[in-house]
Amino acid sequence: MFYAIRHFTRYRYSRPVWQSVMEVRMQPRSENTQRCFTFQLSVGPRARISSYTDHCGNIIHHFDIPERHEQLTIISDTLVDVDAPIDVPASLGSNAWNELDELVEREDYWDMLMPSHFARTSPELEALGRELRLDRRNGEDPLALLRKLNSDLYQTLAYEKATTSVDSPIEHALATRRGVCQDFAHIMIALVRDQRIPCRYVSGYLYHDETHEDRSAEGASHAWVEALLPGLGWVGFDPTNNLIAGERHIRTAIGRDYADVPPTKGILKGRAQTDLQVRVRVTPSDAVLPPDQEFAADEEWSRFLATDKEEELRQAQAQQQQ
Predict the structure, then answer these.
(1) Any residues with CB less than 8 A from the CB of 302 and at least 6 apart, and which?
(2) How confident is the model at residue 153 (pLDDT cuts 50, 70, 90)?
């Protein structure tokens, strides 16, 4: 299925800042059942945008704004096609643990097995593992164990917006038993790695429609995990919604945890308080159309763009008067 995606980000500063250096991870990956046909990144104030591909295959755009500005706007427009993945069986064979251990020994999955910044063990995490009776010695094969954990986390933790922030440790979500998709992903990654299964964080988008009762918030980016399984490769699990990642999941970046793949990451010069506004929209597309045509009739986005143009003109006039 084709999807048109618009990701709007705006930073407003309480006073002018002198410089912004920013990285953006918003371009969907082209691999396996997913193909990114068009991607356009717009920045205001205007800047020269460059890009590179990191060691995980993520496409990272970066830019520098070396001038005074009171706000920074980033808009990405994407057209991507996602095919339905292969059917994932209910379980694997009786020798699956041995096959997985041999696979890990042959290849280098060290970084997806070790604790990372957000996905790490703790007394609270170990207590949850015992509560869920998570142990590879229980007789379940790796896939059955992951399916059960995916469902158990969905049942055990409540999804609630704004209960944690992007830099919250998983202990906050474990203590309150509520969090956002990022927390669900980090908790599952840490538990899965404890079972010696390579597991990684996936940043992207989820298409919401009327036929699925998703708990995750519409209008925002999404996060889930991928675990390595013998004979299947990397399989996606979405514990926030108790789903196996499928045609509605659109992958933008993979890493050890959120610290590796935030949609935007940067630094600025100046002392100012920052107000962040983010809007995401994912809509089906029947044809391969340029993103501008997809959103040309959208009044909400047109209003945002008009505001950016007015702000850019005002800043240009202010610089001319100085």
Answers:
(1) 296
(2) very high
